[in-house]
């Protein structure tokens, strides 16, 4: 089961980035239908759910907050900082914009996002979540994690009150991460695991259309259900997924896309703002193969030659801190 869970999550990570790319790069129906935004938002809610799920599982297994933060910082920050500094040099932004990006609060009002770097709002939400959950565990230990479902509902109710169907502001979007955290707590409960295993394998595919619908503004109040529809879909697939899905998610190509997904996400929008992604409609789409090739090539180099080293360094530092902590 553990191996299957990892493979399923790898598969969903690949799906999430491909949906984001599809929404950002290719026309999906007439522009007036607004399907591109819905497809990209579906990819993001899956990504956020996965993040909340995996982070909560990590802290349930090991509540060493400093080690956790060291590992997450070395996973996210190195490539993010390279991207932000590149954008600052490219656009010549002011100090306050660079400062807001480097400290990961550029998504908060008044927003300070770079052109071609607007997508980095999601990293701000992620980092703010990491430090918030670390503080929660620092203050209350693992028991503090059981407050996450209540916090998720509180954020969703705030969205309802403010009419925020979809937003990049943390307190109007973080329920997408917290729903994944809630799923981790439920999956960790034996009584829930037994119930999930009884679901029909087609269940995740039945939920998927509703998830797409919940990412479209025209669906109105269904948007408030988006975090929980994603969690339900992921939770169902962890224990009971169609054979075709399981096979597709085990393919080497799928695993590769999942492995490079973070770099692809950071790099794709930046390159889209260059010659590779600009021009009139014909020229723009004629250059799409070059844009795809450049994005995945740079992402490959970043993932395996740069990020891997940073991740290993973070793990070594975290392990060293853990040894010091245990020796006291």
Q: How would you describe this protein?
A:
The protein has 15 helices and no strands. Helix 2 packs parallel to helix 5 and helix 13 packs across helix 15 (288-327). It is mainly alpha-helical and 328 residues long. It has helices at 2-25, 35-61, 65-91, 95-102, 121-140, 148-162, 175-187, 190-196, 203-214, 226-239, 243-250, 252-259, 261-272, 281-286, 288-327.
Class from secondary-structure proportions: mainly alpha
Helix content: over 70%
Described by strand count, sense and barrel closure, the largest sheet is:
none
Q: What number is the mean pLDDT?
A: 94
Termini distance?
37 Å
The number of distinct helices, counting runs of at least 4 residues, comes to: 15
- Global Rg: 20 Å
What fraction of residues sit in β-strands?
under 5%
Shape summary:
globular
Give me the strand/helix succession.
Answer: HHHHHHHHHHHHHHH
**Number of E-type strands:** 0
Model regions low in confidence, pLDDT < 50 over at least 5 residues: none
């Amino acid at each position: 089961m553990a191996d299957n869970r990892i493979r399923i999550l790898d598969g969903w990570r690949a799906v999430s980035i491909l949906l984001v790319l599809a929404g950002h790069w290719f026309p999906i129906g007439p522009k007036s239908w607004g399907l591109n935004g819905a497809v990209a938002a579906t990819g993001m809610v899956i990504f956020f759910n996965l993040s909340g799920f995996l982070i909560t599982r990590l802290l349930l297994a090991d509540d060493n907050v400093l080690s956790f933060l060291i590992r997450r910082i070395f996973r996210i920050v190195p490539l993010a900082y390279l991207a932000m500094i590149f954008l600052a040099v490219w656009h010549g932004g002011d100090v306050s914009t660079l400062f807001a990006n480097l400290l990961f609060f550029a998504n908060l009002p008044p927003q300070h996002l770079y052109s071609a770097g607007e997508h980095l709002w999601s990293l701000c939400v992620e980092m703010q979540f990491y430090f918030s959950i670390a503080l929660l565990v620092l203050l209350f230990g693992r028991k503090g994690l059981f407050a996450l479902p209540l916090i998720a509902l509180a954020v969703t109710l705030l969205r309802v009150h403010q009419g925020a169907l979809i937003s990049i502001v943390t307190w109007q979007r973080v329920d997408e991460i917290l729903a994944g955290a809630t799923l981790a707590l439920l999956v960790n409960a034996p009584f829930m695991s037994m119930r999930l295993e009884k679901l029909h394998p087609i269940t995740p595919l039945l939920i998927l259309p509703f998830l797409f619908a919940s990412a479209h503004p025209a669906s109105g109040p269904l948007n408030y259900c988006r975090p929980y529809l994603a969690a339900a879909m992921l939770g169902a697939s962890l224990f009971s997924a169609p054979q075709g899905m399981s096979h597709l998610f085990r393919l080497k190509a799928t695993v590769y896309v999942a492995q490079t997904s973070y770099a692809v996400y950071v790099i794709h929008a930046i390159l889209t703002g260059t010659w590779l992604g600009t021009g009139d409609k014909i020229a723009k789409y004629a250059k799409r193969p070059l844009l795809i090739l450049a994005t995945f090539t740079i992402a490959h180099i970043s993932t395996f030659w740069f990020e891997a080293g940073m991740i290993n360094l973070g793990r070594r530092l975290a392990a060293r801190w853990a040894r010091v902590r245990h020796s006291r």
